[in-house]
Amino acid sequence: MNVEIRQVKTAAEQGFADAFAGLKDRLAKPSAVAALREAAFARFEARGLPHRRVEEWKYTDLRALMREAVPLAPPPDARDRARAKDAGRFLAEAGARRIVLVNGVFMPELSDLAGLEQGLTVGSFAERLARGEGAALSLPGAAGALDEDMAVSLNTAFMGDGAVIAVAPGARIERPLHVVSVVTAASPCAVFARSLVEIGDGAQITLIETHEGTADVAYQINSVVQVAAGDKARFDHIKIVREGSRGLHVGTLMAAAGAEVAFNTFAFTIGGAVVRNQLALALNGRNTEACIGGASLLRGNQHADNTLVVDHAVPHCTSREVFKSVVDDDARSVFQGKIVVRQHAQKTDGKMAAHALLLSESAEADAKPELEIFADDVVCGHGATAGALDEELLFYLKARGIPQKQAEALMIEAFVGEAADGVANEVVREALMLMASGWLAARG
């Protein structure tokens, strides 16, 4: 006897199914993009929201954390634009060119698009979709492997707007670009944003990505950024998550790098109820160097997950991954990192480390570093630590007249600062440390 087993949908999964059915006519054109959406939602519907039995999501059970599918965010109105006007201004001293997304919608009128540097173009992702350019969404290797990820599939099904940034071969854009993503809704809503960054051979760009939203509103963000870096390009990327206290943020960076690329990315998480930063990077050309880092400052019941896969597909590439988290109260930090070395990727040099500082008895840190090595002439390693503040060092500082709280703050700042040293832009690095100092001051 054959018994058909059907997966029971959660309220959130059923909500997504109803929403997709309701939008089907609106999303039906152009047909090439509609086919991508249909295939992506079919993948999602077959597997549902990721849960703890899915290895890549075992520490972040999205099925349990996402109880309901909230309505899609409506197009921004005048009130939304007014609320978004000052978003991201904490980085004003960086002198970056602002590119503003309000509820996932690219807003040229709020962006700084005058006098674009030669070789730089900035546009709307929705316009690219309207032209039927769905082929631009595919990336090779591990970068494209996340297409099968359930959160990315959901994004592909519902993707609306975002930014498209293109840098011509040889162009060196000295002024940083700041993509400001802000949710202004006064009631729960869902945002599905997709942005593309295309960097030509020998080009250079610094991209700052910030996320913030309305406090005490249970909104949901599913954001995907795709990066294609040509040979001898340089890409510096800083992501800062300052979501509202009830915000749920799933952000994905999918990147493919050619030969002799300098690829640097840093994720800083200080806000949001649930945050997952995931990265898939394919090193497809020789002599490419990747530096991947992050720092999370968590308190209350916050949950932050940094998950990454670095695929060494060719020989003579280097990767370094260093993540640090400071966890207080009942918060939880997660690190999952995997370095994959393909059979012919000899002379690979890959090292990965995750360190957690636990400030309370109930704080939790999970770490799962992994190596998958199919070559024999490599230098690879990983490590993870978790523990409380060093009592001997704390005593040393107190013995020199430094009060307990100040001594703790000095130690925590030094711990976070070591990770932030990987941020090349001095103004942004100082802004990160200023946010860390404010977080520490709020501890009381």
Would you write up a description of this structure?
With 444 residues, this protein is an alpha/beta fold. The protein folds into two domains: 11-285, no CATH class; 390-444, no CATH class. It has ten helices and 19 strands. The protein has helices at 11-23, 31-47, 62-65, 78-84, 125-130, 141-145, 150-158, 391-399, 404-420, 426-441, and strands spanning 97-102, 105-106, 120-124, 163-167, 177-183, 190-199, 204-213, 220-229, 234-242, 248-257, 262-269, 274-283, 289-298, 303-312, 318-327, 332-341, 349-358, 364-373, 379-387. The strands form two sheets. The protein has a ten-stranded mixed beta sheet with strand order 2-1-5-7-9-11-13-15-17-19, covered by helices on one side. A nine-stranded mixed beta sheet has the order 3-4-6-8-10-12-14-16-18. α2 runs antiparallel to α7 and α9 (404-420) runs antiparallel to α10. The longest helix has 17 residues, at 31-47. The N and C termini lie far apart (65 Å).
Topology of this protein?
Elements: H1 11-23, H2 31-47, H3 62-65, H4 78-84, E1 97-102, E2 105-106, E3 120-124, H5 125-130, H6 141-145, H7 150-158, E4 163-167, E5 177-183, E6 190-199, E7 204-213, E8 220-229, E9 234-242, E10 248-257, E11 262-269, E12 274-283, E13 289-298, E14 303-312, E15 318-327, E16 332-341, E17 349-358, E18 364-373, E19 379-387, H8 391-399, H9 404-420, H10 426-441
Parallel strand pairs: 1-5, 4-6, 5-7, 6-8, 7-9, 8-10, 9-11, 10-12, 11-13, 12-14, 13-15, 14-16, 15-17, 16-18, 17-19
Antiparallel strand pairs: 1-2, 3-4
Helix pairs in contact: 2-7, 9-10
